[in-house]
Amino acid sequence: MPQISIVVPVFNEQDNVASLIQETVAALRGVVPFEIVYVDDHSRDNTLATLRGLKAQVPELRVLHHASQSGQSTAIRTGVKAARGEWIATLDGDGQNDPADIPKLIAERAKGGREVKMIAGWRVHRQDTGSKRWASKWANAIRVRMLHDDTPDTGCGIKLFERAAFLDLPYFDHMHRYLPALMQRAGWKTVSVPVNHRARTAGVSKYNNFNRALVGIRDLRGVAWLITRSKRTAVEEV
């Protein structure tokens, strides 16, 4: 059984899947028992066909397919629900996250206590356009001010978290952008770790700053409301 499951949501990433899978295998074979769970969010290119072909070459690879396009948060949750590992590492399917950072996150988890349920990547040297970096800077500042989640970069796709803790979180579309705040709301601790970030070499981004901002404002209000309505208590069996 794998100790860790690598969950990768993809939509129209036919030119990135093979190289990212090869890098993931190179980073983890011999380090920890793992599986790679790709979730194809109803791609319209050859992503699914490419993944099917790679299954014969990579025994750790599993492929799930959405019958209709459902978004990144749903794809991540689909992969986590199907995963067999107790801990999940996520990667964006565009190749900008570096799988070689996963062992670093695993080592950070080993240093943390039992209350640490998430280690989040932090793109210190982000390789994106100036407009994306500017938008993320302001979005992160607003989010920290509203949610007080003490996380410098929630938009980084590479994260490590406990499967059971994730599945206990409230589910909604775009929830993947607020995972540290949601974990903290549940009573767990989160840690941010600097990771490598790379420029996209194939394919195109699936969103723009304006659309993300419109959705983000509504989601921020919703998550802030969830935090104010949370209630936790210790439980003992008698």
Characterise the protein shown here.
The chain has 238 residues and is an alpha/beta fold. It contains eight helices and seven strands, in the order E-H-E-H-E-H-E-H-E-H-E-H-H-E-H. The two termini are 34 Å apart. The model has no long low-confidence stretch (mean pLDDT 90).
Please outline the major beta sheet.
7 strands, mixed
N→C terminal distance: 34 Å
The total count of strands amounts to 7
CATH superfamily: Spore Coat Polysaccharide Biosynthesis Protein SpsA, Chain A
Enumerate the strands of the largest sheet in spatial order, edge to edge or round the barrel: 3-2-1-4-6-5-7
The CATH architecture category equals: Alpha-Beta Complex
CATH class category label? Alpha Beta
- Tell me, what's the shape? globular
Q: Assign a percent range to the helix content.
A: 25-40%
Count of the domains? 1
What would the CATH topology be? Spore Coat Polysaccharide Biosynthesis Protein SpsA, Chain A
Category from helices, strands and their pairing: alpha/beta
Sketch the topology as an H/E string, one letter per element.
Answer: EHEHEHEHEHEHHEH
Q: Which residue ranges are poorly predicted, with pLDDT under 50 across at least 5 consecutive positions?
A: none
